[in-house]
Amino acid sequence: MRRVNVSELSEGIANGSRAAIARAITLVESTKPSHREQAHELLQLIAPRTGAAFRVGISGVPGAGKSTFINAMGVKLIDERHHRVAVLAVDPSSSRTGGSILGDRTRMADLAAKDEAFIRPSPSGGHLGGVARATRESMLVLEASGYDVILVETVGVGQSEVAVAGMVDTFLMLQVARTGDQLQGIKRGILELADVIAITKADGDTEQAARVAARELSIAMKLITSENEKRRAPVLTCSSYTGAGLDELWDAVTKHRTELEEAGTLRTRRLAQQEDWLWNMVRDELMEALRTSPEVRDTAAWVEARLADESLSALEGAQEILATFAGAIDTFPWAAPQRR
What we know:
It is globular and about 65 Å long. Helix 7 (188-193) links the parallel strand 5 (170-176) and strand 6. It starts with 5 loop residues before the first helix and ends in a 12-residue tail after the last helix. The chain contains 12 helices and 7 strands. The chain is of the alpha/beta class. The protein has a 7-stranded parallel sheet, sandwiched between helices. Helix 1 crosses helix 2, helix 1 (6-14) packs across helix 3 and helix 2 crosses helix 3 (33-46). The protein folds into 3 domains: 1-49, Single alpha-helices involved in coiled-coils or other helix-helix interfaces, CATH 1.20.5; 51-262, Rossmann fold (3-Layer(aba) Sandwich); 272-331, Orthogonal Bundle (Helix Hairpins).
């Protein structure tokens, strides 16, 4: 990717240029140091136009129909509620090759055809939580371009698939009936994070099973959240095929957002997310510095050789690497920040 004119790119984003948006997201996803500098400059320029969108995270068990649901809901939001909808669909990356299929657009054909929609599949890159490293920055780019609903689809439910809840206003969890024990596929931590729960595929022969599953999950939520005054996530049913229940589900999602605004906790939630984002970026930069430092690489090679012949323990090796990093830290461009 050649060096971009950040000012022109910012103007293109403000004007809604799809090419500029795509290029900007590619820029913020890049891990090259020169691209990261340009990305930081771009984010500063677009910052005044960000923050107004409704951010919704969508996760669920494999087979719950997340992409199909987003396709149906996105079309409804555009056609009937006149929103501009952006989708960040995070695909799992191969732990061996780092590759990713990025096939979500094929499952969102109707939504992809809409001028008011923008779909961006991104590889997770092995990032904890199944959310691409630059998802937060990508959301800012889309907000600056005028998209007022941003849907973040994660790779699925698991112990590490909760990162999305730390960057959105409302966390929607999808579940499907007839998967055995309704709680087996869902970790308690996910249930506690969910703001709204939907049982999908509530049509045809599975409609009754979906309603039964919804009742069972509602009871489970009461057991998990025993405090009467604490909000419990509503459990609804819907069908992406017939459209049944989609309006009620979106009303529940927007009601949660309204409750946050009225209670004054939306701002608190976003400030907490900013703090989380801060430390994630610090951690990412430190890891990148460790990975690219010639001094650290030399020490690491020496430590690994000593580990192989058992002349050094892992603890001692870690101390050697950290000591080398501490000695080399003054060489990094961010080592002496200017405080105001």
